[in-house]
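I'll show a sample.
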Amino acid sequence: MDGAQGFPDGFLWGGATAANQLEGAYDVGGKGLSVQDVMPRGITAPPAQAPTPDNLKLEGIDFYHRYARDIALFAEMGFKVFRFSIAWSRIFPLGDENEPNQEGLAFYDRVLDELDKHGIEPLVTISHYETPLHLARHYNGWTDRRLIGFYERYARTLLERYGKRVRYWLTFNEINSVLHEPFMSGGIATPKEHLREQDLYQAVHHELVASAAATRIAHGINPDIRVGCMILAMPTYPLTPDPRDVWAAKQAERANYAFGDIHVRGEYPGYLLRMLRDKGIELDITEEDRRLLRQHTVDFVSFSYYMSICETATRSALSGGGNILGGVVNPTLEASQWGWQIDPLGLRTILNDYWDRWNKPLFIVENGLGAKDILVQGTEGPTVEDDYRIDYMNDHLVQVREAIADGVQVLGYTSWGCIDLVSASTAQMSKRYGFIYVDRDDDGAGTLERYRKKSFGWYRDLIASNGRSLVDRRD
């Protein structure tokens, strides 16, 4: 342990990204189309039928051509780990081919070479909202059991290629989000308003089985590999002390716990089985599915955390903005410019809850503040005076330190969008999370030049001190 400050030696400080939000080069190197290439408005409107010029994700921030310089900036901050995803349609352009695209594999070889040169550990997400469009259009995405086999082939290709170079893997990003954003998260082409809950839960089941299959493959290739699940974490508080509100909050939290329970424990929890029975949902679950889930559980649990919500049995309460899941406004909390309520203590709460529930190492793989940054001229060139981001991250990391002191085992922390990206939820550039400003606006104009924000130096100093530079600002 690193003194009284609470961050252990070897704590993995770093940043997180997704291929569809930063790579660009959507039609370069043999890449096929993904669901993201036809989502020009993020999740705020129905997807288009084909790529449109105003889809900022098509160019992203051009990481495909600028990865070496970007990774050098991460190294300058002292990153110990970099979370990135591999674009499925860059490896299997349609998703159902027998042979991978070698040019796509070679690109990620180069990315890994660059990370290795700087001593940065890779953390790879196999599927991060990037289902090949062909699988969505021709199979209706993860509603079709055949996607398990396609994913298994894809995962085996990655693990055989990179399994000696990459220790930490995540199977699916925010797996619980399929229920809320089926096209983006599950490649399900049926419009949301026409989807049956039966189909949604069957799709999640297929993903859970595929995740277990990938875990089996990974451990067979290299026993040192650590495979994690990834959950959208959102602690839910009762709006009032009314027992009905307390129960409503518990039910909402269980909806998030459910898929983590299956990943970690290897079987469906009783509360989820009851909910399915009550809804008249009968899932197609084979004995082989049960065996895979039972025998190939995850090594750690990773999650995103941005906000908490409230829940009430009285649905007349005002709903608030949220990271996909939404929720009821908490009157005690302030909110970001996008309506996401800011709750540092909620991060300590979720860390303790997950540790108590699963007793598995935890990894915070997304956290940060989306804000409208203003580029100004500083003493060393253009910069952003983003003290609001520094305060947000400082306060959340103080709570991580407290959770570690509580006895929670936390592997690391990767700040979301460590370099400005195209937003997944809104497809905007103006919703910025990074320590590095990218010169591009919501209309697609800009030079794509990179500039260090004030938070860049703050995070660099934080990593160098292994958290000792944090300031406890609690009253």
Summary: The longest strand covers residues 226-233.
